[in-house]
Write a structure and sequence with these properties.
Lipocalin; Immunoglobulin-like; 11-stranded antiparallel β-sheet; 46% strand; binds 2-acetamido-2-deoxy-beta-D-glucopyranose; Dd_Spore_Germination_Stalk; extracellular matrix structural constituent
């Protein structure tokens, strides 16, 4: 923290030593490149955070860097509450601009309205500008083709959204999948209880004869069927299971107070 303060003071003292951005902008004057740009700003009075991301291309006729596609603006003002946590920068509430330019004289224009002058430090490792009480830093990098922004553009879900069958991702150390089906739920003593049937699938390329699943707060098991409670409180296979072959499944059931339980495997023993 102290170091950051010292660095900040150093930067502020050295503002007068900053120079024009000719050299910095010169590096991006190539019409065959796509220039990815990000801007992050903090409001000097209310501490709001304002961010922009977009791909630029150099127009060799007008000598300007122009937005290729759209510029996405996400702000900490636009926040939503998900799972009990404020999520700032809600992409649903993003602002999309089609006009963004950086002129060769270092002036930047957002949405035809806002103008600001870029300031570059001598070795170009810090480029900043001030606008509407925000202090912004800007960075750019040239690519042969436009990289994805990962900043509010449309995407396709790689997994189906959770329905009544929440599916937990396999733990990283073992490729063993657990698929839960919620059978019923009830309330008792102001607590909600959930009863699940779970299909375990062996996606490893080996068979295993034994498993130890950790009884932790993410699973929250209170009682189980087709699983044996071990002396240390974790759970394992009942005696009649000899081995689970690759791709084979095994079904068990349990009651938990967790709505979306997940499993941690402590160990397996190869058959
Ligand atoms: C401007 O860029 C285009 C490609 O986008 C190129 O064909 C043209 O020769 C360039 N003109 C100059 C003056 O560099
Ligand atoms: C830079 O150029 C733009 C476009 O020609 C102009 O609007 C702006 O005022 C210029 N900025 C400075 C600092 O001269
Ligand atoms: C600009 O974006 C379009 C698609 O929106 C893409 O086809 C094109 O290659 C991009 N320009 C550059 C210079 O990468
Ligand atoms: C009900 O909840 C209270 C406090 O949460 C606890 O003291 C009590 O033992 C619970 N009763 C039963 C039957 O679980």
């Amino acid at each position: 923290m102290k170091l950051i303060t010292i660095i900040l003071i150093f930067f502020l003292i050295n503002l007068s030593k900053s120079q024009s951005c000719d050299k910095f902008l010169e590096k991006f004057k190539d019409s065959n490149k796509c220039i990815q740009m990000s801007i992050a700003g903090s409001h000097i009075l209310n501490q709001a955070i304002d961010t922009y991301k977009g791909n630029l291309k150099y127009n060799n006729v007008t000598n300007t860097l122009e937005i290729n596609g759209t510029l996405t603006n996400l702000q900490s003002y636009e926040s939503i509450c998900i799972d009990g946590l404020y999520q700032p920068f809600s992409a649903m509430d993003s602002f999309i601009y089609k006009d963004f330019k950086i002129f060769s004289n270092g002036t930047l224009r957002i949405n035809n309205v806002f103008f600001a002058n870029l300031v570059c430090f001598p070795n170009d490792d810090f480029v900043y500008f001030k606008l509407n009480n925000f202090l912004y830093s800007l960075s750019m990098r040239a690519y042969s083709s436009c990289p994805i922004l990962y900043f509010g553009e449309a995407c396709i879900l790689s997994t189906p959204p959770p329905t009544t069958t929440p599916t937990t991702t396999p733990p990283s150390n073992y490729n063993i999948k657990f698929e839960n089906t919620l059978n019923s739920q009830w309330e008792k003593n102001n607590t909600l209880f959930y009863q699940f049937t779970t299909i375990l699938q062996n996606n490893e390329n080996y068979a295993f004869s034994s498993i130890e699943i950790v009884n932790d707060g993410k699973w929250g098991v209170l009682e189980a069927w087709n699983l044996n409670k071990l002396e240390n409180g974790n759970y394992g296979f009942p005696g009649y299971v000899s081995k689970i072959e690759p791709k084979e499944t095994f079904t068990f059931g349990f009651v938990s107070t967790i709505r979306n339980p997940s499993f941690t495997i402590k160990s397996v023993i190869k058959a």
